[in-house]
Structures are given as structure tokens and as C-alpha cells.
């Protein structure tokens, strides 16, 4: 990008082409980053295609595009992500929340409200999207949100505060939570090391948020042994891994696998037989 006069339209077209080499959604990335650089909405960009960008906005935008080209996720650059119609602060020390995880949260909320399950433990809270959304949408619940990453614990506390649910969520590490709550929910790190090595587009996100040991199942096994809730809800890898299935069966758990909207295995609802 030479330092000449750029209109919104020209700059979006140029960066969309440029980001094609590194992103599966170059146009959306370009729009989100330009919207952030100009402090305008994406709709504003569309209604001001012929407007020239000022030097400050262009300078900021260049820095963002450079980072994106180096593989930094858009949401780490803009520092926020919407999830369950709420806006969350995020940073590069936590996983960027995925839209598929909303289906796990929706399922927990529907079942918990129907069954009046109010005591909920979440393992691996990251930015806090799961716990904070549940706290927001289930009036009388009490949640224990656990992580081993201090940055995740701090960010979950911050997001709980932003959404006014701090009083309903205890955030910290192991030891403070009940071992027999109504629900244990988790989106654990579930890639195998080998799978991670083959996905370079994920390498700017924290390794410990993505890889669940050699077989990808480490945290599931730990959770299933440590807790005795009425029910567990897990996000799982697609296709549902045979080794995890074997573990459920060997240890006496019954399970239901639920697909997401794109027909991929996504949620395991698990109970002790
Ligand atoms: C896939 S991320 C999920 C983050 C967030 N809940 C979400 O859905 O976007 C997994 C999280 O588990 C945490 N984690 C990794 N190992 C853990 C362990 N042994 N105990 C608790 N949390 C762990 C990571 O720090 C990370 O925040």
C-alpha cells in the first residue's frame, strides 16, 4: 500500500486481494479491521465507499493488516468478539471464541432451565464466554469458572464485570469448586499434537488452549474422573474420536453426540451409568 490517497472502496479491494494468501475470509477481515481503524461501523464503510481515509486511520489500518498478514487472528487485533449476542473482551493469551461453541452454550441453557440445574462448573473458561453467557441467561444460577492460565482467569473476571454477573461467578483455579455440581461444562483443548502441527493457521493462538495431550483427550479424562455431576456437556472434535468413545464406554459413561448446524459432531452430553 503506497502512501497516496485511498478511498474506502479502493483500500478494501486492495487488502482483500492481499489477505487472500493468508485468510479464508479476506473481505470480512479487511472490513472488520478498517471499521476498527476508522472507529466506524461496517455499515458506514458501505455508505462511504468514495470517502478518502485520513492519514491516522490509514496508518492504523496498515499496522493491523501487517499483523493479520503475519497470521494474527482478526479478533486478537481488535480485542473483542461477540458471542451469544454479547460483546466480550479478548486478547492473544486466550482462544478466540468460536461460533460453534454457542451451540454448546444454548444446549446447556435450555436443559438447565428446564431441569432447574443451577450449580454449574466450567473447566477451561478462557475469555469467559461460556460462563458469562450462562450467567447472563439463567437468572438464579451459580457458576465456578476454572482455568490454569492466569490471563484467562483475569479476563473472565473482567468480562463477568462488564456483563454485571460477577456475583454469580466464582473465577479461579482448582480447589474452590464443588465436585458434585448439577452440571460440568467444558470446551477443553482437544487437538492432538499432530493435528495442531498440521494447522499452521492456529499457531498464533495459545497452544495450551488447543492441544489436549498426545491423544487430544487428556482434559476430558481428568474431568470425568474428578467430578460427579448430574450431567456433563463437552465440546468435541469432529469426527467424534474413537479413543474418547472407548474411554466413555470403558469407564461406564453413557453419551449422546449432537451435531452442529453444519452437520459436524460437536457436543457430547455425558452421564455416569
Ligand atoms: C479451547 S479453550 C476454551 C476457552 C473458552 N471456554 C471458549 O470456549 O472459548 C480451552 C481452555 O482450557 C484451558 N486449560 C488447558 N488445560 C487446562 C487444565 N488442565 N485445566 C483447566 N483448564 C485448562 C486453557 O487455558 C483454555 O483457556
Fraction of residues in H or I helices:
40-55%
CATH superfamily of the largest domain: Vaccinia Virus protein VP39
- Adjacency order of strands in the biggest sheet: 5-4-3-6-7-9-8
Low-confidence stretches: none
Main sheet summary:
7 strands, mixed
Chemical compounds bound to the protein = S-adenosylmethionine
Write down the domain tally: 2
Label the structural class. Answer: alpha/beta
Q: Do you know the CATH architecture of the largest domain?
A: 3-Layer(aba) Sandwich
Task: Calculate the terminal CA-CA distance, rounded to whole Å.
Answer: 62 Å
Explain what this protein looks like in three dimensions.
Helix content is 42%, strand content 17%. It has 273 residues and is an alpha/beta fold. The protein folds into two domains: 8-78, Helicase, Ruva Protein, domain 3; 84-272, Vaccinia Virus protein VP39 (Rossmann fold), CATH 3.40.50.150. The relative contact order is 0.10. The mean pLDDT is 96. Residues 94-95, 97, 101, 123-127, 129-130, 146-149, 152, 187-189, 208-209, 219 line the site of S-adenosylmethionine. S-adenosylmethionine binds next to helix 7 and helix 10.
Write the layout of secondary structure elements.
Blueprint: H1 8-19, H2 26-38, H3 42-47, H4 55-69, H5 74-78, E1 80-83, E2 86-89, H6 100-115, E3 119-123, H7 129-137, E4 142-146, H8 150-162, E5 169-172, E6 183-186, H9 193-197, H10 207-210, H11 218-226, E7 231-235, H12 242-250, E8 253-259, E9 265-272
Parallel strand pairs: 3-4, 3-6, 4-5, 6-7
Antiparallel strand pairs: 1-2, 7-9, 8-9
Bound molecules: S-adenosylmethionine.
The site of S-adenosylmethionine has 22 residues, from α7 and α10.
Amino acid at each position: 500500500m503506497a502512501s497516496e490517497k485511498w478511498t474506502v472502496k479502493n483500500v478494501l479491494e486492495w487488502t482483500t486481494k492481499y489477505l487472500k494468501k493468508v485468510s479464508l475470509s479476506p473481505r470480512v477481515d479487511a472490513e472488520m479491521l478498517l471499521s476498527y481503524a476508522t472507529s466506524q461501523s461496517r455499515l458506514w464503510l458501505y455508505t462511504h465507499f468514495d470517502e478518502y481515509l485520513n492519514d491516522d486511520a490509514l496508518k492504523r489500518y496498515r499496522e493491523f493488516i501487517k499483523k493479520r498478514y503475519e497470521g494474527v487472528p482478526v479478533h486478537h487485533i481488535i480485542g473483542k468478539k461477540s458471542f451469544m449476542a454479547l460483546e466480550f473482551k479478548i486478547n492473544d493469551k486466550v482462544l478466540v471464541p468460536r461460533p460453534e461453541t454457542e451451540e454448546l452454550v444454548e444446549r446447556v441453557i435450555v436443559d438447565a432451565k428446564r431441569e432447574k440445574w443451577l450449580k454449574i462448573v466450567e473447566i477451561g473458561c478462557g475469555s469467559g464466554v461460556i460462563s458469562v453467557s450462562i450467567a447472563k441467561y439463567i437468572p438464579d444460577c451459580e457458576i465456578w469458572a476454572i482455568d490454569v492460565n492466569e490471563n484467562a482467569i483475569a479476563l473472565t473476571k473482567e468480562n463477568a464485570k462488564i456483563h454485571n454477573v460477577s456475583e454469580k461467578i466464582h473465577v479461579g483455579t482448582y480447589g474452590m469448586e464443588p465436585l458434585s455440581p448439577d452440571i460440568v461444562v467444558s470446551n477443553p483443548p482437544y487437538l492432538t499434537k499432530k493435528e495442531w502441527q498440521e494447522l499452521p493457521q492456529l499457531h498464533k493462538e495459545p497452544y495450551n488452549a488447543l492441544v489436549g495431550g498426545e491423544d487430544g483427550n487428556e482434559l476430558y479424562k481428568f474431568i470425568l474422573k474428578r467430578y460427579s455431576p448430574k450431567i456433563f456437556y463437552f465440546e468435541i472434535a469432529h469426527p467424534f474420536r474413537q479413543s474418547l468413545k472407548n474411554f466413555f464406554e470403558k469407564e461406564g459413561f453413557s453419551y449422546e453426540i449432537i451435531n452442529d448446524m453444519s452437520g459436524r459432531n460437536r457436543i457430547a452430553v455425558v452421564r455416569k451409568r
